[in-house]
Amino acid sequence: MESDEEEEYTLQGPVDDEGFPHGYCTLAYTSGDKFEGHFDHGAKSGKGSFHFYDGSKLEGVFDGGLLQGKGLYTYEDGSVLKGVYVDGELNGPAEEFNSEGQLTFRGQYSNGVRCGFCWIYSADGGCICGDVNDDGEMTGANIAYIYPGMKLALIGSFVDGELVKGQLANVVGISQDKPQYNMVSDGGIFKCDVSTNNSISSDPLLPDPYEQEMVYVGASTIQGASEGLFMKVPMKEDKVVAFYNGIRLMHSEVDARDWSRNGNTISLDEEIVIDVPPPFDDTKHYCASLGHKVNHSFSPNSKYDLFQHPRFGFVKCIRTIKPVAADEELTVEYGYDHHGCGPDNPDAPEWYKQQMKSLKGKN
To answer: Which of 38, 51, 296, 309 is catalytic?
Structure first.
């Protein structure tokens, strides 16, 4: 992270009798990096900070020209790393946070490389933990993905954080910062199984264990709807309760189809749409995820959110926005485009337009 001391620089600040920086100085390097801080006869000494050409920054206390003790590295995107430095290298405990202040990593470094038992956290509430390999990667045979809530885990083989083969376990406690598990003998075998444009899953009837504890499919209480998704247990606000996996199609393909074929589609990003087409809309053919069973409401109790799933990959999830009681139906606002064809004629299926007109009539 530090600039090469042999690199040419422009100096602003006091110098000693031999012309070396001495006191508080600024060194502007030809690479575009800059150092601001205290010097003792040419050696960085005391508080100082590197400002790198890419917008990142390293701050801490220097001794003999090298960063020693606690240091703070701020990446160009605003995420930060807080760690312990020995002779300018990360050596010891460290934590990393994203630009919103959410914890993304906790563990150890040795000579600038992650080592030992580490935790990697996702913004959606899930995490991966285990002993990293010599390259600092989550690669090995006894690594765990832990679902939000820290109660269920998939334990097994991972390669650089990707699940190769795992089994279900219950998290029963934490000892010396390591989770303790009870394996579930009949919980199934799981692997990274990201869908494509023609394959929804290699094991479409293997339910997600987290979702299985949260929700069930039943007859909807909403007029005109057939099935809906209901809570098995009471749930607080801001909790993930279900996942929305499906085949992955391009927006252009979906947009060109009739609305009658888009009943179970949801936009994942600017390029990809997730779809659960027949026969997979029937749980007899597909029950690996159930998020597509959630119905629309203009007064919803949940919302769609992004989720990095160990099995499905990058998908949408259902997250509560208020407390939801056991056996209460989950609803989201589908969010069709109200501007493309005018506020009173949204780009949406006919049933949605009728619901919107009915709502406006009541108001």
So the answer is: 296
What string of DSSP letters covers 89-132? Answer: EEEEEEEEE-TTS-EEEEEEEETTEEEEEEEEE-TTS-EEEEE-
Residue with tokens 């206390």: 61
Q: From the candidates 22, 38, 51, 292, which is the catalytic residue?
A: 292
Cβ neighbours of 150 (radius 10 Å): 14
Q: Nearest-CA neighbor of 310 among 136, 118, 105, 157?
A: 157
What SS3 class is residue 58?
A: strand
Specify whether 216 is catalytic.
Answer: no
User: Which one is catalytic: 24, 334, 336, 352?
Assistant: 334
For the record, the structure tokens of 352 come out as: 């949605």
Task: Specify whether 296 is catalytic.
Answer: yes
What per-residue confidence (pLDDT) applies to 3?
45
Q: Does the annotation count 352 as an active-site position?
A: no
Sequence-ordered alpha helix ranges (H) in the chain: 209-214, 251-255, 350-362
**Catalytic-role residue among 244, 251, 336, 339:** 244
Q: Is 109 a catalytic residue?
A: no
Tens of pLDDT, residues 157-208:
999 999 999 999 999 999 999 999 999 999 999 999 999 999 999 999 999 9
4, pLDDT greater than 90:
no
Residue 181 known to be catalytic: no
To the nearest 10°, report the CA torsion of 201, 207, 209, 211: 100
